[in-house]
Specification:
This is GntR family transcriptional regulator. Pfam families: GntR, UTRA. By secondary structure, the chain is of the alpha+beta class. It has 2 domains: about 80 residues, Winged helix-like DNA-binding domain superfamily/Winged helix DNA-binding domain (Arc Repressor Mutant, subunit A, Orthogonal Bundle), CATH 1.10.10; about 160 residues, Chorismate lyase (3-Layer(aba) Sandwich), CATH 3.40.1410. It has 7 helices and 10 strands. The strands form 3 sheets. It has a 6-stranded antiparallel sheet with strand order 4-5-6-9-8-7. Strands 1-2 form a two-stranded antiparallel ribbon.
Amino acid sequence: MGYLVPSAKVIPGELDRDSPVSIHIQLRELIRSYVHHGTKAEQQLPSERDMAERFGVARMTLRHAVEALVEEGLLERIVGIGTFVAKPKVDVTLKLTSYSEEMARRGMRPSARTLAFEQIPATARLARELQIQEGQLVIRLRRLLLADEEPMSVDENFIPAWRVPGILDAGPPSSLYNVLGERYGLVIEWGEDTIEANAATPSIARLLKVDVGAPVLRTERHAFVSRSTVDYSVSFYRADRYKLRVPLQRPGARTRRMY
């Protein structure tokens, strides 16, 4: 695949060499403004050599400015090819909403590919997480979740089978939480998430279309009705497409902010 490298002349603005603001910071902000107002995701930037000549600076100074934007996640480098405008990350506030609700709220088209929808006996690990007996039947739903047809996460949910009789007969649900609430009266009240950084295994990498070993966010969730665990899930998010936001509040403090 070929890439059209634009000329650095397309970047507007000039450096103010009399300004107390350092040159590399001025460069960084000029490039940032160009990215925000003159480019789109995955568009290639002019070469470092061309940009350095355009602004009359050393390549090391130019590289310093670009590297700062790479670290911010605004740009990304592809070794041997060049620097590109990064795709924006989906900023997700951790709340007890379904994936389809969260993506629709952000103007993205959610979809899912079912990888498994079956009844299995609970392993010792599942029994512990769901607070049930080992060997008790559990519904397993594993899906690849997409937004605008792009892989975003691999989700695996486990629900005690006795809570959702007949759920397999209706086929995989498009919105699990909606089915739990509307069909079974299981309105999720609260939950606990555990988040950690992982490296993508070969199977996860294949599904998410990332390199083996690429960073992914692994989230375990326990969703409760009253004090009972109704759903235990494990999700793997593409770290290059997700940013998780966690609302915090001091104990005893009052706030009117609505998340």
